[in-house]
Design brief:
alpha/beta; Immunoglobulin-like; 120 residues; 4-stranded antiparallel beta sheet; 2 domains
């Protein structure tokens, strides 16, 4: 009986070791992926300086695996597009009743956060 229990314990220990190794491997890959990424952040205001919630912010780049990524400014007029692959981006800002704004040739490098505040 002791032999069977010992074998089960060894197998259980091996299974736990494999699971822990897998978890650490996945975690390090995730961190490495984030270190190779960049961000675009900012705040949108109107010409009087009032914050503008609800502005749609859309980034486009050939570096993306999809045609574009979008977000909407929050109650403080702030937005964040992250994580983004490194590359050159164009960013559009749209809100009903305001003229659309486009920023071109935004260069994102590894670990860089581009701060793009706009006035609409």
């Amino acid at each position: 009986m002791n032999c069977t229990f010992g074998r089960l314990s060894n197998r259980g220990g091996f299974v736990i070791w494999v699971l822990l190794a897998s978890i650490f491997s996945l975690a390090s890959e995730s961190l490495a992926g984030q270190q190779n990424a960049a961000s675009i952040v900012g705040q949108i205001r109107d010409e009087s300086g009032a914050i503008l919630p609800g502005v749609t912010v859309t980034a486009r780049s050939s570096a993306l695996q999809v045609p574009e990524v979008s977000t909407v400014t929050d109650e403080r007029g702030e937005y964040r597009l992250s994580p983004l692959p490194i590359g050159i981006y164009s960013v559009d800002y749209t809100l009903s009743g305001f003229q659309e704004i486009r920023r071109e040739s935004i260069q994102l490098t590894i670990g860089f956060t581009a701060r793009l505040d706009e006035i609409m």
